[in-house]
Design goal:
Length: 236
């Protein structure tokens, strides 16, 4: 199984400095944990290997999407958001279809938390042709879907739009207009659900391994990404 990383995040946004309270995983025996991590399906929804809900399943994973918003703390600017959960069999294909709405040339941010339990590091590359990008992403489907310490964001700074496949394997689209993203989700049988709650909104556990980290490093090389902190750049 490799190592496990439990993160409590009460909102869709990461809260790097949030305290981690004792949770259900700390009371489990190794056998109980192995059994829980081996549960892949909840009803018709199949999880990837990257993440599992709390042992008492505070939120049962299911397919659907809802509208949300992102508020920039510095400027107060509000950006409309669609957040979606998709079953494993259609996850990457849906992500690739969402990318198509961003244009022919995009920027890429590869996110890693392999060496941290509280925050992730952003690795940035500007200007990659979408057909080339999609070919690379299909080659690395395993790490993108099954590694709980890898996330990726595709950005069009001119349009001020972004599509993410985050560490929790949620699909997140930022920036108006949202209608094309909505149509793609519905076309994949992912439907609007105002009451849907996501695995990020309760206790959950991330999973990774040394093999996944090696694959992440290979993906980093193929994408040609660099440490964003070393460049004076921003997403938008």
């Amino acid at each position: 199984m490799g190592f496990l990383k439990r993160i409590l995040r009460p909102t869709p946004q990461d809260t790097a400095d949030a305290p981690v309270a004792p949770g259900s995983f700390e009371r489990l025996s190794d056998e109980e944990l192995q059994v829980h991590m081996g549960i892949k399906t909840y009803g018709a929804f199949e999880l990837t290997d990257a993440i599992r809900p709390s042992y008492d399943v505070q939120i049962a994973p299911r397919q659907g999407f809802r509208y949300d918003k992102y508020v920039d703390e510095a400027s107060g600017a509000t950006t409309p958001v669609i957040m979606a959960a998709a079953t494993k069999s259609i996850l990457l294909d849906t992500f690739l279809e969402l990318i198509d709405h961003l244009g022919n040339v995009v920027d890429v941010v590869l996110e890693t938390s392999h060496h941290s339990s509280s925050h992730h590091e952003d690795l940035y590359r500007e200007h990659i042709d979408v057909p080339v990008l999609k070919s690379i992403l299909m080659e690395f489907e395993d790490v993108l879907t099954d590694d709980g310490c890898t996330g990726i964001a595709i950005i069009n700074p001119t349009k001020k739009q972004e599509v993410q496949l985050d560490e929790h394997k949620l699909l997140i689209a930022y920036g108006a207009p949202l209608d094309p993203f909505r149509e793609t989700l519905i076309g994949a049988d992912i439907y609007p659900d105002k009451s849907i709650r996501f695995i990020t909104e309760a206790e959950h556990v991330h999973s990774s391994s040394e093999r996944m980290y090696d694959r992440f490093l290979q993906l980093q090389t193929r994408l040609g990404v660099e440490d964003e902190s070393s460049e004076d750049t921003a997403a938008w």
